[in-house]
Amino acid sequence: MPDYKEKIISTLMHTAAGAGVGCVSESIVIGYGGGMVAFVGAIVLILMNQIVKLGLKKREFNWWMANGIWPYLATWFAVWVIAINI
Predict the structure, then answer these.
(1) Is 21 exposed, middle or buried, given 0-12, 13-18 or 19+ CB atoms closer than 10 A?
(2) N or C: which end of the chain has fewer CB atoms below 10 A?
(3) Is residue 38 part of a domain?
(4) In this structure, are residues 38 and 22 in contact, taking their beta carbons and an 8 Å threshold?
(5) What is the rounded CA–CA span in Å between residue 32 and residue 17?
(6) What share of the chain is helix, strand, coil (3-state, %, to 5)?
(7) For residue 31, how many other CB atoms are within 10 A of its CB?
(8) With pLDDT > 70 as the criterion, what percentage of the chain qualifies?
(9) Cα separation of 63 and 77, whole Å?
(10) What gap in Å lies between CA 54 and CA 28, rounded to an integer?
(11) Does the structure show a pLDDT above 90 at 16?
């Protein structure tokens, strides 16, 4: 598979996971506090890393940072802020 397709797949997977965690974050903050949100977010991010490693065979941290961590965190934060303000 060409590298650009792997980047797109990884970015879309992490963006979808970030949106899901962002939607759930508001409920977690109300019930358990901000620390639990960070914990759940980190667990989901680690699970996404393992899925990408198995599916795309990418191992470099810099690649994952650009195509996984930043899209995940940006989407999570954006969806969370929108959910709080609705």
Answers:
(1) buried
(2) C
(3) yes
(4) no
(5) 20
(6) 90, 0, 10
(7) 8
(8) 99
(9) 21
(10) 29
(11) yes
pLDDT of 46 strictly over 70: yes
What amino acid is encoded at 7 in this protein?
K
**Is residue 86 situated within a structural domain?**
no
Q: Are 13 and 51 in contact (CB under 8 A)?
A: yes
Quick check: is 42 in a domain? Answer: yes
More confident residue, 69 or 56: 69
Q: Name, in order, each residue with C-beta under 8 angstroms of 37's C-beta and a sequence gap of 6 or more.
A: 25, 28, 29
Question: pLDDT category, 73, cuts 50, 70, 90?
Answer: very high
Answer yes or no: is 18 within a domain: yes
> What is the domain extent for residue 36?
3-81
- DSSP secondary structure, 30-42, as one string: HHT-HHHHHHHHH
